[in-house]
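Supplementary Note 2. Why include the ligand at all?

Several targets in our set were suspected to adopt different conformations when bound, so apo predictions alone were not considered sufficient. For every target with a known small-molecule partner we therefore ran a joint prediction. The input for zinc ion is given below.
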Amino acid sequence: MTNLTQFIQDMPKAEVHIHLEGAIQPETVLKLAKHHHQLDKLPGDTVDALRNWFTFTDFPHFVKIYVAIQDLLRTAADFALIAYECGADMARQNIRYRELTVTPYTHTDHQDKGLTIDDILQGLEEGRQRAKEEFGVEMRWVFDVPRNLSFGDNGYSPYAATRTLEFALAGRDKGVVGFGLGGWEPGAPPRHFAHAFAAAKEAGLLCVPHAGETLGADSVWGAVNELQADRIGHGVRAIEDPELLALLKERQIPLEINPTSNICLGVYRRLAEHPFPHLDRMGLLVTVNSDDPPLFNTDLSGEYAVLATEFGYDAANLARVARNAFAVAGLEAETKQRLLSEFDAWAKQTVAAST
Ligand SMILES: [Zn+2]
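The joint prediction is reproduced in token form.
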């Protein structure tokens, strides 16, 4: 494993399922809190205290932290800071490309912070470009609809989805490449959101809803049939339906899998029960991702380490899975080809030597 640890670190990596707000490191949370004079809202003013607070205990605690982090994002400069810090973290792990999910609706319409979509787009763009110049890393955005904020006493309201689509379309020249759907699946089936996903697809955005995480195969069927999903966020519970597995395999619809997140949120009790290696062996197109890394005490390298230690992946298999994340990325063809060529050149040199 020591050799594989180094191999994983050196491997040029990409990830397509990670939430920008959920990727903010404790150090950055402290910076934001100090800047906005909100330190008293946090359980401590040291990185250790925050790291301790970040430790995953249960879903309500996870949501509480998430909301507290969101509340600290108040200006364009804040978004520039978190995008830039995200780039620094990519450089640290040798991640060449990240497609990050952002939920603008929760910062604009849902909260009274006076923040506009222009502020958010401007901040994200500034941070992304600075990170690119300084670290040579590429970032793109997926704007996702918070599914649970789309239902009220009168049932489904299209407002959050319509607004998010409007935001995503406004950001197409600033790195927005995809349209997503996130949150707790029960009570919020995909079909309601079909209107927005059809329009997103028509406009050329990649459709990447979360499904098959907190609910089973039906939710994934909905994502495929009702939303014409180009990739599935999680999708692991497709394992419960052979017919669905056959379809995902035949169409090679990529799954964005996050093993540690699934254990933390109780989708599986332990890694030994996680279906990742089975889905891969059956010929589904799998990718490995970190979802909300500091909140699950992981990072992308840690997720590849899970493949090595828990599922017995060797260097060649780690590289095969790692390549998938570049191959399914939603960025423009030219840059994607460059990243894939870089990866292939590295793999050609390195993998044979490691096996
Ligand atoms: Zn997610």
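The longest strand covers residues 138-146. The chain has one domain: 2-354. Comparable summaries for the other entries are listed in the accompanying table.
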